[in-house]
Design goal:
The protein is an alpha+beta fold and 237 residues long. 28% of the residues lie in helices and 29% in strands. The strands form 4 sheets. The protein has a 4-stranded mixed beta sheet with strand order 1-10-12-11, sandwiched between helices. Strands 5-4-9-6 form a 4-stranded antiparallel beta sheet. The protein has a two-stranded antiparallel ribbon with strand order 2-3.
Length: 237
């Protein structure tokens, strides 16, 4: 019961909800994927709150039957109509670009462009989240209502990104308790502007780790902030 009380006290400090929300809001606009500058920026922000051990795993490293992929970074992306107006703009939402899109710079008629456009017909006002981590492809995501309104004309398509050998980044924090038996908490760090599916988990675990680090516990605790699937497998291997 004393152990339960200590952990409960770690969570029940004044203003904890507001602090978790503020951190989630800070992480929300960062463009994250399974590798890249956005992951490093996120780990760096969490490390200001938790004494993380940061790992950089090179491209090509084997993790069981998986392989660490090339590192992906993106600077800008957009679609312009024939009048030169940006109708889809990565600067307004990083969800507009399919994660791990190959670099693209071309002009395409709508018929060809539509093959690379993703939407949610059942939720026509929302931008979907799409990835292509392990297959070379490119794409944009936009509300279905906007997709249906596109004119039959030629569009300028630009994805200013790079995919090259680099690293997979993850952070880990270990708190030693009275015994070696440990509890593992894991939050995936690879999704961008998704509040429930990423930011909330990162913010909650970071604050929990911060408080537990200053608390005497019976069990040991380990916190892992890593990309989904490939990050967990890399850590396990």
């Amino acid at each position: 019961m004393e152990h339960q009380a200590n952990v409960s006290e770690a969570l029940a400090y004044e203003g904890v909800g507001e602090r978790i929300y503020a951190l989630a809001a800070e992480l929300f606009p960062i463009c994250r994927s399974i590798t890249g500058a956005g992951v490093r920026a996120t780990v760096g922000r969490l490390a200001a709150l938790v004494d993380l051990e940061v790992h950089e795993v090179p491209t090509g490293t084997q993790a069981f039957d998986w392989t660490v992929p090339r590192e992906w970074n993106i600077r800008d992306a957009y679609i312009k109509d024939s009048a030169g107006s940006k109708i889809v703009d990565f600067a307004k939402s990083n969800l507009h670009v399919m994660s791990y899109s190959m670099p693209v710079r071309k002009h395409l008629p709508l018929e060809q462009l539509r093959k690379h456009l993703h939407s949610l017909p059942q939720q026509p006002d929302l931008i979907p989240y799409r990835t292509s981590y392990y297959a070379e492809n490119w794409g944009f995501c936009l509300p279905h209502r906007q997709l249906e309104s596109l004119k039959d004309e030629t569009y300028e398509v630009v994805i200013d990104a790079q995919l090259e050998d680099g690293f997979l980044t993850y952070g880990e924090f270990f708190h030693r308790g009275e015994i070696e038996d440990e509890v593992l908490f894991s939050a995936h760090i690879c999704h961008p502007s998704l509040a429930n599916d990423n930011c909330s988990g990162l913010a909650l675990l970071a604050h929990l780790a911060n408080r537990i680090s200053r608390t005497k516990t019976h069990y040991s605790y380990r916190f892992l902030f890593a990309p989904g699937s490939i990050g967990a497998l890399t850590w396990l291997s």
